[in-house]
Structures are given as structure tokens and as C-alpha cells.
Write a structure and sequence with these properties.
CATH architecture of the largest domain: 3-Layer(aba) Sandwich
Bound molecules: adenosine-5'-triphosphate
CATH class of the largest domain: Alpha Beta
Number of helices: 10
Largest sheet: 6 strands, mixed
CATH superfamily of the largest domain: P-loop containing nucleotide triphosphate hydrolases
């Protein structure tokens, strides 16, 4: 579903991705892990068209993304949940959810989309009229994920969704991601919580200093403490 070949990316003169290649098959969860500063966020931002300079081949469902501006990439059925969540202060939970339909209108209409999200996230359903910025950190993360799901994307790229969230909600999130995968949604999950991510994922990719250094099943990496310590230790 997503094919990245020879991706390079720069922040100004700083060359941070050096020929990253990885692929994510339809209906698969892939965990993208590695140390701080390894290039995980930059990889996702490059896919979404949010880097000032990137080069290489990125195809989504056969379409060449590099030729398209960011807004057109969202319309192809790609969604992105950034690390900083970006819940809009001053807007209610329902209004924040509706923003998920701005970049891509979805298939079922706004009312049906909100009903579907409310059934999946009862905690948000009880708070549709509450200001988004007054939610707890975990609830805000759920809102950011729910907003990304509004347009029923075929693939969601998530940047450290478990960060700063209490363990019970992290486990709930894991159940949600598995359910999405079982419904056919493809997920690329950047995570520092390596063990959790590997328990969830089908495959794992490690990136280090802007290069892919390991690719295997998630189970194989979970069992390989030596590689985890070499490339993922914080
Ligand atoms: P983290 O888990 O810390 O977010 P990461 O693997 O996602 O790490 P990136 O954020 O992709 O890493 O960063 C890759 C490299 O690019 C790092 O060396 C980082 O310092 C650099 N970098 C990131 N953002 C910028 C920026 N806005 N300007 C300049 N350099 C940046």
C-alpha cells in the first residue's frame, strides 16, 4: 500500500534521511522504531509532503506522492496524527472532529462519521460539547486519532501516540489499532514505547541516523534484546 524507495530529506543544509526504503502492505501494522533523532518523524513528514526538501520515491496505492502537494495526499486516503496532537483550543470536541473532514470529506457524511466515532470512543461521545483543550492528555490523543479516522482513511500514520498517556489508555489504544487493522486499515506507527509497539505490530523497521538498519517481523524483533538495545535504547 505504501512504498518508500531511496528517500532523502533535508532541514536546510542538514541532510537527515539517507536513502530510506520501506514498505507497508495493505491491512498491516508496521512499527517504525529507533532512537531519538533517528529520522522517524522526518520519514512520516516526508510521506505527508510536510518536509521543506525531500527526494526519492513514495507511492501510495500506486500513486506517486512526491508529485503531489500535502493536501492532495490527504485526499487519497492517507491520514496523519502528529506527535503534538494539535487539538484546536476554543473548539469543542465535535468541532475538532469535524476538522477531520476538511482535508478529506470522507464517504458517509458528517453525521454518520460523528456517530461512528462516538460508538468507537464512548469517552469522547460523552464530551462532544466540551472544549477540546480541557480534555486530559489521553483523551486529547484519542480525539486526535478519532479526528484522523473521520474521513475513513485507508492508512493512518501515527507519531508516538502512546507518549505521555496512562497505561490503561495505552492498552485501549492498542485494542483500537488491532481492530482498525482487522477492518482493513493500514497503520504505520512511530513509537518510543518499543515493546508495546512490537506486541501490536505485524512487522518492524528500525531507522538509525537516517537509514533503515533492520527489518523483520515484529515478533522477531521483540525476541531480539540485543538489536533493541543497540538501536532503540533511549
Ligand atoms: P524523536 O523520537 O526524537 O522525534 P525522530 O526519530 O522522530 O526522533 P526526527 O524528528 O525525524 O527524529 O529528526 C531527525 C533529525 O533531524 C534529527 O537529527 C533532528 O535533530 C533533525 N531535525 C528534526 N526537526 C528539525 C528541524 N525542524 N530543523 C532542523 N533539524 C531538525
Amino acid at each position: 500500500m505504501l512504498e518508500i524507495r531511496g528517500l532523502n530529506a533535508w532541514y536546510g543544509a542538514s541532510h537527515v534521511l539517507h536513502g530510506v526504503s520501506l514498505s507497508v502492505a495493505e491491512g498491516e501494522i508496521v512499527a517504525l522504531v529507533g532512537r531519538n533523532g533517528a529520522g522517524k518523524t522526518t520519514t512520516i513528514r516526508s510521506v505527508m509532503g510536510l518536509m521543506p526538501k525531500a527526494a526519492g520515491e513514495v507511492r501510495f496505492a500506486g500513486t506517486d506522492l512526491m508529485a503531489l502537494p500535502a493536501h492532495a495526499r490527504f485526499r487519497l486516503g492517507l491520514a496523519y496524527v502528529p506527535e503534538e496532537r494539535r487539538i484546536v483550543p476554543g473548539l469543542t470536541v465535535a468541532e475538532n472532529l469535524r476538522l477531520g473532514l476538511v482535508a478529506s470529506p470522507g464517504r458517509s457524511g458528517e453525521r454518520a462519521a460523528i456517530d461512528r466515532i462516538a460508538a468507537t470512543f464512548p469517552r469522547l461521545a460523552e464530551r462532544l460539547g466540551q472544549q477540546g483543550s480541557t480534555l486530559s492528555g489521553g483523551e486529547q490523543q484519542m480525539l486526535a486519532i478519532a479526528r484522523a479516522m473521520m474521513a475513513e482513511p485507508a492508512m493512518i500514520l501515527l507519531d508516538e501516540p502512546s507518549e505521555g498517556i496512562m497505561p490503561v489508555l495505552v492498552e485501549e489504544m492498542g485494542v483500537l489499532f488491532r481492530r482498525l487493522r482487522d477492518e482493513g486499515v493500514t497503520l504505520l506507527l512511530v513509537e518510543q514505547n518499543v515493546e508495546w509497539a512490537l506486541r501490536l505490530a505485524d512487522r518492524a523497521v528500525i531507522i538509525d541516523q537516517g537509514e533503515v538498519v533492520h527489518e523483520s517481523s515484529a515478533a522477531a524483533l521483540l525476541a531480539d534484546q540485543a538489536i533493541q538495545e543497540r538501536y532503540c535504547a533511549v
